[in-house]
Amino acid sequence: MPERNGPDDERANARATERAHAGEAERAGPREADRAKERGTPPDPSRRELTAWAWRIPVLAALGFGSWGLYEGIRTHFFKEDPDPDPTFEPGPTVPVAPLASFDRDWAEAEFAYRYAPAIALRLPGPVPGGLTVAGADGEELHLAAFSRVCTHQGCLVTLNRDVEAVAFAFNHRADGPSLTCGCHLSVFSPDRAGRAVAGPAVRPLPRVRLERDGDALIATGIEGAEPPDAPYDGERAV
């Protein structure tokens, strides 16, 4: 007859089995150890590797978005583009803008559309590159310039804001005179700096529209070539 183990032998075997499972548990980690103890099988190394990498994913994502935000912040604050001092205008249809008599004072404005996009003509205190200087009825010089009203950031419409204090408060930019402002994302453009972006997320200047004199009237005959905004104007967005 086979020799039967006594109670002491059975207890010894049970302790040996527990020590073996404990060794597996220590190597597998707490959760894998529990499962390994239940199954009586060693843990899957690939699952441990996946678990070790899983916590890194949100960290890497946060670092990526943080780096992108830092890049955008530096670009929009320190690398705004200057308008071309000698702009090239793409020829287009001849569009009437307004009578010259309507520009009887500095910052007088006339809105019009050019190539289906809103634009604005302004009388400025001084000449700007890409603008037009003509003699008025009384012999004084009229310094005129026209700009697309489509913001170069994401295609909303800019408007002439004459309230210097309102621009300083709402757009965090102190200007010496009226500005072209975008209410969507708070970009500010300076007409007397040839449409340069001076505040907000916009980087590129507003495209200029070529103006010419036709008798006692002002006409538009071309527009400055420029890259489209990040989200092109769709004819509906307005400030």
Textual characterization of the structure:
The structure is a single chain. By secondary structure, this protein is an alpha+beta fold. It has two domains: about 5-75, no CATH class; about 85-225, Rieske Iron-sulfur Protein (3-layer Sandwich), CATH 2.102.10. About 30% of the residues lie in helices and about 30% in strands. It has five helices and eleven strands; from the N terminus they run H-H-H-H-E-E-E-E-E-E-H-E-E-E-E-E. It has helices at about 5-30, 30-40, 45-55, 55-80, 165-170; strands at about 90-100, 110-115, 115-125, 130-135, 140-150, 160, 180, 185-190, 195-200, 210-215, 215-225. The strands form two sheets. Strands 1, 2, 3, 4, 5, 10 and 11 form a seven-stranded antiparallel sheet that branches. The chain has a four-stranded antiparallel sheet with strand order 6-7-8-9. A hairpin with a 4-residue loop joins strand 7 and strand 8 (about 185-190). The longest helix has 23 residues, at about 55-80. The chain is rod-shaped, with a radius of gyration of 35 Å. About 25% of the residues are buried. The model has no long low-confidence stretch (mean pLDDT about 80).
In brief:
This protein is an alpha+beta fold and 239 residues long.
